[in-house]
Each structure stands twice: as C-alpha cells, then as structure tokens.
C-alpha cells in the first residue's frame, strides 16, 4: 500500500516538473483519434524575401473542425527575421467555384479582423484568399501544399 502511494506521489511530482511547451511548437493533441492536415509553402511578402507558412488544421474524431495553428516565418534573405505563431478555431464551409464544389477553410471565423480564408482547390493544396474571400489575381504564388 505504501509503495503504491509513494509511486503515485512520485508520478505526480514528475508530471508537475515537466516544462511548458514552447510557443513555436505544434500543440499537443490530447485526443488520439483526432486528425490533422498540414499545408505549407512560401507566400509572397511586400517588405521581406517571403513568408514560409505552415497551416495545421485539426479535426476531432467525428471529422469536425476543432483548432488550427498558423506558423509564419518572415524571411530576410535566407534567414528568418521574425516568426509568428497563431492558434485558434477554424470552420469549414462549402463553396462553388468554376462549377465545382470546394472546401473553404476559415481560420478565426468569429473575429473579422483576424479572419483568413483558404480554398482547397486540389486534393493536396489550398489557396489563400483575399480579405473579401476572393481569389487573389496575381502572378505570385498564394498556394500551400499538403505535407
């Protein structure tokens, strides 16, 4: 009985001593049946060399959207000048584009100023949309590919 109590206390102490998760790492998914989709690529930047972007979308065991993580590394030449990590909720909507039904991923759907939209226009790619939800007409690349 004493051994079991001591072992339990030791486990609790060790669990309390674990360090906090660094800000720039992916959040730990507690639910082992949860799924995630990861999209990454280099997006254009007006005042830097490019933005290395990774969008991770988490779904629950019922395939419903749960959380997201958006990691953006602003490059100065070949070096990272600034890294921003954003986390929050995301939503899934359907959109008809070019007579095809496509998935629309909306991160921060409840916060208009922080809301971003991505159109899943291929099996392995999403395209970032402008603030109004329209495809960005540009020769620059706004696509993220699945990992």
Automatic annotation (TrEMBL):
On the tree of life, the source organism's domain of life is Bacteria
Q: Which Pfam families match?
A: NlpE
Instruction: Identify the InterPro entries for this entry.
Output: Cu-R_lipoprotein_NlpE
Name-wise, this protein is Lipoprotein
């Amino acid at each position: 009985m004493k051994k079991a109590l001591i072992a339990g206390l030791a486990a609790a102490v060790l669990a309390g001593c674990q360090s906090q998760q660094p800000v720039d790492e992916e959040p730990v998914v507690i639910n082992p049946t949860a799924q995630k989709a990861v999209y990454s690529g280099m997006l254009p930047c007006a005042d830097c060399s490019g933005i290395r972007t990774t969008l991770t979308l988490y779904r629950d065991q019922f395939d419903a959207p749960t959380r997201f993580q958006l990691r953006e590394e602003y490059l100065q030449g070949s070096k990272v000048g600034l890294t921003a990590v954003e986390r929050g909720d995301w939503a899934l909507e359907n959109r008809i584009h070019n007579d095809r039904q496509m998935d629309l991923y909306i991160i921060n759907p409840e916060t208009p100023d922080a809301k971003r939209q991505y159109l899943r226009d291929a099996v392995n790619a999403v395209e970032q949309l402008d603030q109004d939800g329209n495809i960005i007409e540009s020769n620059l690349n706004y696509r993220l590919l699945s990992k």
